Amino acid sequence: MMSGEAIQPKPWLTTVLTLYPEMFPGPLGIALAERARERSIWSLDCVNIRQYAHDKHHSIDDEPYGGGPGMVMRPDVLAAAIDSSIAAGAHRPIIYLTPRGTPLTQSRVREIASGEGVTLICGRFEGVDERVLTSRDIEQLSIGDYVLSGGEIAALAVIDACVRLLPGVVGAAESLHEESFEQGLLEYPHYTRPRSFEGKDVPAVLLSGNHERIRSWRRAQAEKITRERRADLWVDAGAECANQRAK
Ligand code: 9D3
Fold first, then answer.
1. Which atom of ligand 1 is nearest to the CA of 143?
2. Any residues with Cβ below 6 Å from ligand 1, and which?
3. Ligand 1: which of 78, 125, 147 to mutate, judged by most atoms within 8 Å of the beta carbon?
4. Same fold, 12-163 and 174-246
5. Residue 150 C-alpha to ligand 1 middle, in angstroms?
6. What is the pTM of this model?
7. Span 12-163: which CATH code?
8. How sure is the predictor about 4, in pLDDT bands with cuts at 50, 70 and 90?
9. Candidates 2.60.40.10, 1.10.1270.20, 3.40.640.10, 3.40.50.1240; correct CATH number of 174-246?
10. For residue range 173-189, what is the model confidence (pLDDT) as tens digits?
11. Domain residues of the chain, as ranges?
């Protein structure tokens, strides 16, 4: 290689198994994520699970053993889709998106983004046959306690959260700023021009030019908002804040 020539690292690889490939790239086909994909920072490979249906009716789901509402995705069809999608020698987690999964966190997002990529399985129906999940090393993740129609929007959320952490996607200044907010506090409120809007003035401290006072005002606002909106975060962050002040 010529000296000075930029090295091109391997793209971060995403494979999505879905019955609705037309939902991809969807919102990942614009703005930040799209530009990163054009620059080969990441790539998207969509697999239609229906391709792996093998009986004469191309069936992918069936009634649950034991009875009950809804349909269940067949393990043989999904297993065939998984096994032909995972490249030999690939070191990528396989994740099934399900409301029964472990809640996704920013720290898991950081781990996933730091690897070679991810394979995401989107369910439809009531769920998938349990045996396919245990026979392969499949992690189960949820994106929160509310009900979606399927795993596709959750898969888009996982990819979006990871892609913006890949080197070169978000500017250095912005990602540094973000790190300072990964201390478990919600962010302080923002203001821009005009100075007066609908009779409300920008807080005077932000116009003072006193950076020490601005920092401590923002910190106090962040703590207040976290306490009010996210008692769950405050339990951990509040103790940390008290420690910081004691130092
Ligand atoms: C009454 C049983 N339902 C569970 C709450 C069944 C069910 C509802 C919705 C099964 C699957 C779904 C579709 N949802 C997802 O595939 C999903 C999801 C979600 O609904 N919420 C949060 N995270 C996720 S990840 C995948």
1. 23
2. 97-99, 123, 126-127, 142-144, 146-151, 154
3. 147
4. no
5. 6
6. 0.94
7. 3.40.1280.10
8. low
9. 1.10.1270.20
10. 888 777 766 678 999 99
11. 12-163, 174-246
Whether the bond between 25 and the residue before it is cis, its omega within 30 degrees of 0, is yes
**Residue 26 tokens, joined:** 């969807």
